[in-house]
Structures are given as structure tokens and as C-alpha cells.
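Hi P.,

Sorry for the delay on this. The queue was packed all week, but I finally got your sequence through. Input first:
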Amino acid sequence: MEIESGSYQNIAKKESWRTVLTLAYQSLGVVYGDLSISPLYVYKSTFAEDIHHSESNEEIFGVLSFIFWTITLVPLLKYVFIVLRADDNGEGGTFALYSLLCRHARVNSLPSCQLADEQLIEYKTDSIGSSSSMPQTGFAASLKSTLEKHGVLQKILLVLALIGTCMVIGDGVLTPAISVFSAVSGVELSMSKEHHKYIELPAACIILIGLFALQHYGTHRVGFLFAPVILLWLMCISAIGVYNIFHWNPHVYEALSPYYMYKFLKKTQSKGWMSLGGILLCITGSEAMFADLGHFSQLSIKIAFTSLVYPSLILAYMGQAAYLSQHHVIESEYNIGFYVSVPEKLRWPVLVIAILAAVVGSQAIITGTFSIIKQCSALGCFPKVKIVHTSSKIHGQIYIPEINWILMILCLAVTIGFRDTKRLGNASGLAVITVMLVTTCLMSLVIVLCWHKSVLFAIAFVVFFGTIEALYFSASLIKFLEGAWVPIALAFCFLLAMCTWHYGTLKRYEYDVQNKVSVNWLLSLSQTLGIARVRGLGLIHTELVSGVPAIFSHFVTNLPAFHQVLVFLCVKSVPVPHVRPEERFLVGRIGPKEFRIYRCIVRFGYRDVHKDDFEFEGDLVCSIAEFIRTEAATATAAETNGEDEDRMSVVGTCSTYMQGIEDHYESDLDDPNKPGTSEIRSPKPKKKSKSKIKKRVRFVVPETPKIEKETRQELMELTEAREGGVAYIMGNAYMKAKQGSGLVKRLAINIGYEFLRRNTRGPRNMLTSPNASTLEVGMIYHV
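Then the structure:
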């Protein structure tokens, strides 16, 4: 499945108001599930221990004032009006910001980047139209130069992005736990305390196990229910809020004044500051507005939040405050929670809706965790994992089995270990605010380097929002021993794995570059070793974008034979969300024409979907054929005579040269002279016999006087090689630190990287190459 570019998607999404409103409705279930269920646990977490509800109502009104202004300033002002504009060609999230900075300041951590990558359409511009090649002036130019010169600053920037990513993964563990546990806690109002504790925890665990167990089915089958559930939940809490306001305290709106925040802090002092960790939970899930931007449009997300989510949440919090302002006798801790403000006759229906909403909110963060891990893996910052696309129609619907079960085990562990919303809230709050702080830091650089705005605007942005978030961060961090240690521990483990993998990947690439073989050595093989050429198409997988990898020289010196057509294949990621189909392939020639050796670089964005092996083979052969035709038409071969191996041509996934794909067993071959359109079509085998049809398919080269005899012969050999079978030759490198290396390097390479490499997927799996056609060549890398 070929993914359209993000910019094209946004254009398509903005065709009509009907489309925008439809997307706004759908975003309720995907984007706002986590944020919408926060009223379940905010007041309960805030009043858990640090402050107490008194008859003066200064505490409850102060908390309401903090909630109102926090929701107004962070989700509404920061994200809706500012951060959403910093999308990367329609994609959002921490890595979208990092990707923008990589392109505008050349701080890319990917070792295989080329100048040709900067010619990609999505590389040159972002959604607001600013070009990465636009000259910088003043402070921006100085900042860009500093970042490009100092590798330490580039590493700090990468680590900052990875910290935000790790905290998102931690949030994927904590959000389902606190959401489901808080929703289920409503049963405690309907039974005695001795009984409900035996129901609450098992019920939460059963729901969580079911939630994670159903992930492999994908959400597209039940996704149509997500938006109605959240819509029903928002209408429910807003209606209850309006009822409580008019029934208990119509003057509660006065608490929206910032003056009540001052009174709150003046009375409660340090305990009030510590309680901010609970108030912080009212904005959990705000980052999803930016992270899930790729599935919707900016306008649809803004409309959904400003017209429905924001007013519903404010009414819900005001309603709870109005009820609590008239009820000061606290018999137990749950009397300060959400369900106590729900009319008794509605508690069971609301409980059911709350559980459904909690499941939807948890599903959104789990899917977001899968997505961000896929992005990290594409950019070389996370071990290769199995990625299953659960829907062929809905972009972004993926499932990662290993990560899913790890999240489930961790989620059950924290739920069983904590068993209360207080410590779960402390843990979740720290993860949420850390991600927001990272976004604020990266946004300040985007404002200067990408938007070309005044440095004063960037400083004002950091000071204003950074101060607010730093206040909440300090209040969460002080609860380290009361649950806040969990996201720190999780982030540390994931960050350690990411940094180790990235370090090992860079060292492996450096070894390949230092030990690559010259083209002249390859050209002299047939004379020195008596190399035999066998029928078929050989794909040599390599990370190098130039030269011949050492793994191939190791292979051919031990087995002096290779295929009649040889392709050095490099599949790499570039720091853009999507690469357009017409810019996918870079194809070049190694050596003279008669050697039939090519280099093909396949470029994917960090959000692109890799094709299956059969469709990929078809596109690869088509791109090489198109290169041969273009080369003949432009007389490139006559100019270079195969000596310049760096000369590459951009070729799309679909070309316009060869005609048709036929099956030997279905019908007789058509007459090659038969007139028709000249088009390469990727093979489309029947579903039931995909593996069998694969070896039968061949291309038919049309007889036309426009094709020179030499070019026709080369195309025919390419066709025969494809029919003879495709062999994938992969390098299986074992990494070892050199003798004399430091302790840290030996631990990172010999233990850390090798452990991750052995227990994750290799290049063969990433290319989805068939087992029967794959040959792995082992080699030890001493780095």
C-alpha cells in the first residue's frame, strides 16, 4: 500500500466543510479520549493527601481556578493556536519537530543521508511553506551554525527528543491503568468498602487484559464506535455539570477568577504547591492533539476542541466543584471523586459509559505508542520490531506484538502494585508534563530555525509556557517516592535501549564505510578469481549509499559466483514523514554496461508503509528498467562510461516503458508487436496462490524501433533474470568491541547491542523477503 504525502492528505481533507466536520467528529474517539476522561480522577488525586476540603471552599474554588486556567493556557492556547502549526507535512508529535530541525539545521542523526535527499519535495518545504533552503539571518544563522558545528549539541537534541518519546511510551503504560481503574472505582459507591476492594482490582485487570489482547485485531473494526462513545461521555459529563451548577451553586463561575488561585496558594502554601501534581492530570492527553495530527487536519482538531471538548470539560469540573462546595462532610476518600457528584439514579449508566470511554482513551494512547516506536525504529533509534498493519485502508493502524505484551505486563504491574489513583496519578502526571516540556523546548528552536520568527517570540514562548510546565513538573517530581519514580524508571530503561541501539548502528555503519571495497576491485574480480555468473537477479542488501560493502567481498571470495544481474540495494529512511512514489527510487550503474551491476537506493519516510516482497520486487525491476531507458535516451552511458558510480537517477515506483505482465499458465503470451500503452504495472497475483505465481511472472519487452539493440538486450537480460528468480543476500553482522576499548563501549557493544540484535528482527524481516530466497552471510565486525 503506497501512502500519500501528508501535504496531499491535508489538501484532500480541506475540500469542504462537510469533510472538516466529519474529521472533527472522528477525532473525538482518536484524539480526545484520554483528555475527556480526566474528570474521573483529577479532584480525587488533588485532594488525596496534601490539601483538605474545608467549609470555606477556598480549596475547592482554588483548584477549579487552577484547572480552568491550565486547560485554557496549555491545550487551548499552546497546542491549538501555536503547536499545531508546527506540523511536518501534515504529521505531528515529538519526532515531527525533531524532523523539522534535522532538515532546517542539518542535525540529522541518520548516517546514510545524501544531498539527493534534500531534493525531495517534502524535504524542501513544510506545511506553512517555509523552505529548508531559505537563508537564515541574524541570530537564526548563528544558532544554525552552532548546531551544525558542535556534535555534542546535536546529541543533546537527539537525547531530548528521545526523552520525550520514552515518556510517551511510559504514558502508554500509565494512562490505561489510571483510566480503567478510575472508571471501575465507581462500584465503591454501591457496596461496602470491605467488598468493593475485591471487585475493583480484578475488574480493572480483566478489562486491561482484554484491551491488550484485542490489539492484534486492529481498531478499524470497532473504530466507528469510538467517536460516539466519547461524544456520549462528553454530553453526559457536561449535562451532569450543568445540573450540579444550577442545583447546588450557581455562583461557582466566580471561581474562574485568577484571584482564587492566589487565595488557594496563600492558604495552603507548600501543600497547595504539592497538590498541583493532581491538578496537572486535567491536561493529560493534550499532546495527542499534536501527535495524532497525521490522521486528521489542523482545522478539524481545532473545531472539535474549541466547540465541544473544551466547554464540556469546563462544565464538568465546574459541576463537580459546585457539588463539593455544598458537601463538606468527607466520610471517606472516594466522596471527593467524580461519581459522588453524579445523581444516584444515573450512577450505573454513567459507570458503564465511563468504562467504555476509559477503554477508548486507553486505546488511543496505545495506538500512539505503536506509532511513535515505528518512527523511532525508522530513524535508527529503536531496535527493529515486527510491525503489523491491521488495516489496508486506514493509515496509521499498526500493531507491534512485542511492545503490546510489554505494555500489558507493565500496565498490570503498576495497577496491582499501586491499587489507588493517588500514586497512579503521580506517575502519570510526571510523564505527561515531561513530554510537554520537551515539546516546548523543541518548539522554541522550530520558531527560530523553521518559522524564521524573532528570537524574542521564541524566548517569550519558552518563558511563558516553560514556567507553567516547570511549576507542575516540580510538583510532580517531589512525589518521586509516591509513584513518580515509575515513569522515570521506565523512561530510563527505554532510553538506555534506544541510545545503545543508535550507538551500535552508527558504529556498524562506520565500519562498513571504512571497510568498503572499491569499484575497481569489483571490476577486476572476473579476471583474478574466475567469477561465474549464474541465472537470476541478486539483491545485495547494504546500508551503504556508495561503494561495495565488505560483506559482499567476504561472500564472493569464499563463493566466486554471483547472479547475471546484480543490484546493491539500500533501503533507508529520510527525515520526512512520507516520500512520494515518484521520488522513491534512486538508481545508478556500477561499472560498464556489460557487467549488469546496479545500485538502487529506496527511500522511505518515517511514516511510510513498506510494501510486501512481491510488490516491492516488481517496483524494483520497473525502476531499473526505467533507468535503463532514461539512460539510453539521454546518452548518460556515453558520457560517463560507467565510471561515475555516484551518478544516480530519481525513478518512481511506476514507469512508462515496458508493457504488461503475463502469466505462462493462464494464457498464451500476447504478440509483442501488439499496440498499446507502454506501462509497467506491478504484479497483482491472486490471493490464494501468491507464492506460486511469483515465479511465473515475466515482463514482455515490446518490439519498437525506438529502442536501440543494446538497450533491448539489457532489458531482456533484466527480464530473464527476474524470471530466473530473485535472491536476497543479507549481511548478518556480529559486533564486537576492539581490544583495548573502554568499559562503557564493551558493555554497550558486546552486551547491550548484541542482546538487542539477537532478540529483534534483522534486515531480512524488514524487507519481508521470503525465507526460501534469502541467503545470510555472517561476518564479525570489530568496532
